[in-house]
Amino acid sequence: MSAYTVSRGQWLAWVAAIPAGLGIAYGASTLVARARSFCDAAWEPQHRFAHLFELIVLAAATAVAAVVVAVLARTATVRAPRPVRASAQLAAVLLVAGAIAWWYVAWQGTPAGYPGDSGLCPDSNVPPWWPSWLPVG
User: Fold this and answer.
1) Cβ partners under 8 Å of residue 12, min gap 6
2) Within 13 Å of residue 52, how many CA atoms lie on the same side as its CB?
3) What three-state secondary structure class fits 92?
4) Is 71 exposed, middle or buried (0-12, 13-18, 19+ CB in 10 A)?
5) What percent of the chain is helix, strand and coil (3-state, nearest 5)?
6) For 38, phi and psi rounded to 5 degrees?
7) Cα–Cα distance between 21 and 64 in angstroms, integer?
8) How far apart are CA 37 and CA 19, in angstroms?
9) Per-residue pLDDT at 117
10) How many angstroms separate the first and last alpha carbons of the chain?
11) Distance CA 10, CA 60 (A)
12) Which of 1, 108, 118, 122 is the most buried (most CB within 10 A)?
């Protein structure tokens, strides 16, 4: 088998990048939805529909980005040993999917200044349970 031949295991690794991307996107979307519903900020029916649309777009974009970066990592490490190739692909997929999720949480996470009605959050709409290491939108 030459260095440029794609094995069955490699195809499975690329296919496995899709659920990894989808799972990370779903986690980010769920965190944003819980924060908005807890503070009752931007959680009216029209916002819920927009959030569902954002979830679909985010999941698709993250899954596609995960597969693309897995293929690019494989191409960049084509002459490396198999464990190095696998590790590089895994690291690249997790890094890119995590960066997309981080961006989404920072962009849509806690809508500052939006009038929240729950009384459980300050004007910044950041719930008290929001992790301090996550960005505030």
Assistant:
1) none
2) 6
3) helix
4) middle
5) 65, 0, 35
6) -65, -45
7) 8
8) 26
9) 72
10) 50
11) 21
12) 108
CA 71, 31, 20 angle in degrees (round to 5)? 20
**Secondary structure letter of residue 127 according to DSSP:** -
CA 84 to mean position of chain CA atoms: 24
Q: What is the pLDDT of residue 45?
A: 80
Rounded distance between C-alpha atoms, residue 23 and residue 43, angstroms: 23
61: tokens are 């974009």
- CB under 8 Å to 59, separation ≥6 — which residues? 21, 22, 25, 26, 29
> In which residue ranges of the chain is pLDDT below 70?
1-6, 137
Judge if pTM exceeds 0.90.
no
**Token pair belonging to 39:** 């503070």
State both tokens at 98: 């995590």
Rounded to whole angstroms, the Cα distance separating 9 from 16 reads 10
